[in-house]
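To start, one record:
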Amino acid sequence: MLVTIVYQMVIEKAIKSTWILFLILLFRKNLNIKSFKSSTVILWVFFILYLIVPYGIRIQFENGNVNDIISKFVKIAVFINDEIYIYL
């Protein structure tokens, strides 16, 4: 597995931030019930930091034995987030 830091274009960051915002709003009430009260504040701080920092993380999986569950997860992540690649 290779992890690199890459510069993200503005349009990519806008699309990804829309997905992240949707997920935060979707799970916000559930987090308030099941976890400590400042967990939503921590999520919003991470979201704001994501918007400010112009760099992202790219994770590349090399050829090899990949578990079927991990492969399905990565395929879903590739669909949502363009920065995760898998080479099978």
Strands lie at 2-7, 55-61, 84-86. Residues 83-88 have pLDDT under 50 and may be disordered.
